[in-house]
Amino acid sequence: MTMETTTLSGLELLHNAAHNKGTAFNDQERKNKKLEGLLPPSVESLDLQVQRVLNHLDSKKDDLERYIYLIGLEERNEVVFYKTVMSDPMRFIPILYDPIVADACLEFGHIYRRPRGMYITRHMKGRMAEVLKNWPVKDVRFICVSTGGRILGLGDIGANGMGIPIGKLQLYTACAAVPPDCLLPVLFDIGTTNEKLRNDPLYLGTREAPVSEEELNELTEEFVQAVQTVFPGCCIHFEDWKGTDAIRYLDRYKDKVLCYNDDIQGTASVALAGVFSAMNITGGDLKEQRILFYGAGSAGIGIGKLICSELRDLGLSEEEARSRVAYMDINGLIETSRDDLSPEQQKFALNAEPTRDLVKVINDFKPTILFGVSTSAGAFTQAVVEKMSEINERPIIFALSNPTSKVECTAEQAYTWSKGKALFAAGVQFPEFEMNGKTFLPGQANNFYIYPAIGLATYAARPLLLDDECFIVAAHATANQVTADMQKKGMLYPSQHNILETEITTAVKIAEYMFDNGLAQAERPENIRSWIEEKLYNPQY
Ligand code: NAI
């Protein structure tokens, strides 16, 4: 694959990750490409190269070391990297992404080896298009852009956040086989509030306080327009911007340019998928559910809005839909007497007494589903889980806060305190849990079930825009892939072992929706699945 498409030779070829085959260059290639003498004599198969990588990984002392090794491997040989990662996604997703990517981000300036992706700063104002043209690939189809302003429950970590767009885009390929050469990670460095980082000599970002909202609006507008000019048809994936910025820019751009916000729309979609799955298991009706969110930030509000949108599709009025949803945040119950609420939060304010007591709110509001999106570790105490179990035959509990150190309760706690009644999912993968001879399989409500499939459908169908319905379609498609056997074990999400198959199936449904609703620009093929399958990246030489 790679040899035909490159004119590179010699060391330049060996140092080009996209084209390098390393010890797998055969004798003829070594002759033709001036590689003779530059490689050890043994010609190896890709499988043997992967075996060596697996041996190296086994010898590393922890997952952060494995992360550093894998990132280095991607920079040396992309095919071996993706072959390795795609051979065992369950093992490698947690290293490239949650939870290890969080450690990698905290240490970003310290473990830094080589530049990756692009850094856009306020000092490039007026020249962003010119700067974007420095990227060597012209057909960029996805930019994942983060300010690092709100990472994985770690708060503002500025330019250290670059680990996130890198990891997110790696999963487009690892989970949904989107070709890696069309992916561009961007860190939008607007400064950071993080004093500790600004004082760290090894910090790699701009050592300034964040720009004002007004300046950020201008910078973002310039960036969005520059992307349209330099990479027409490119989808902008907003990731980990500060909550209010995230909501503002999604509102501003989603009907104008091809873009989405994974923290808001991807999270909402994967949460909705879990709710659909739970309904399949309990036989419950979504219209009858009452949903309490602990945390009212971009994730919680995004999930609540998408659930309301689905409830309206099912025939409820706007008001009825909203009455099924309640929120608590750091200042307690979101209720009408509060004067610190955003316009989005105000829409969900309950007519109730102020309180900070979660057990009391559960007792009064009687939720069937409890979401944790608060970054408040341990907030779902034994009393909380017991109260949920007292009022529900099968309490549905999502403890979504990442990383593991922020989770509201663990799988073990949810199953033990509910005496095995809870249907539970977390943002991270907890191990299987045995209780009274029964095995429980906690779900991982992670956006990686959704956004790579959105990416694959977008890559193939080339939509002009992405609307909310794309994310509802993705949620249904994901939930419908949880088999009856999996449901019996309490699984709310499909297995990660065959994630590629799952994502392709989801992408086919999304692409169908795009074609049916006039969003797609590509010509509708006769068989959408085989048409998508022809476009998949395959890590082979
Ligand atoms: P955010 O910062 O926008 O919102 C956090 C919310 O939690 C705010 O409403 C805040 O008032 C509230 N909160 C903070 N401390 C609290 C406390 N002690 N008690 C009650 N409420 C408290 O953050 P965002 O984007 O909404 O994310 C929240 C969490 O959800 C993060 O840990 C994030 O990693 C996780 N998340 C998980 C996803 C997944 O697993 N699929 C996807 C997106 C987010």
TrEMBL record:
GO BP annotation list: malate metabolic process
Active site (record annotation): 97, 168
Malic enzyme N-terminal domain segment(s): 74-254
Keyword Metal-binding included in the entry's annotation: yes
Free-text comment on the cofactor: Divalent metal cations. Prefers magnesium or manganese.
Leading EC class: oxidoreductase
Transmembrane segments: none
Cofactor: Mg(2+); Mn(2+)
Residues bound to a divalent metal cation: 239-240, 263
InterPro entries listed in its UniProt record: Aminoacid_DH-like_N_sf, Malic_N_dom, Malic_N_dom_sf, Malic_NAD-bd, Malic_OxRdtase, NAD(P)-bd_dom_sf
Residue span, Malic enzyme NAD-binding domain: 264-515
Record-level Gene Ontology MF annotations: malate dehydrogenase (decarboxylating) (NAD+) activity; malate dehydrogenase (decarboxylating) (NADP+) activity; metal ion binding; NAD binding
EC number: 1.1.1.-, 1.1.1.38, 1.1.1.39, 1.1.1.40
Alphabetically ordered keywords of this record: Metal-binding, Oxidoreductase
Binding site for (S)-malate: 150, 402, 446
The family this protein is said to belong to: Belongs to the malic enzymes family.
Name of this chain's protein: NAD-dependent malic enzyme
Species, as recorded: Tatumella ptyseos ATCC 33301
Lineage of the species this protein comes from: Bacteria, Pseudomonadati, Pseudomonadota, Gammaproteobacteria, Enterobacterales
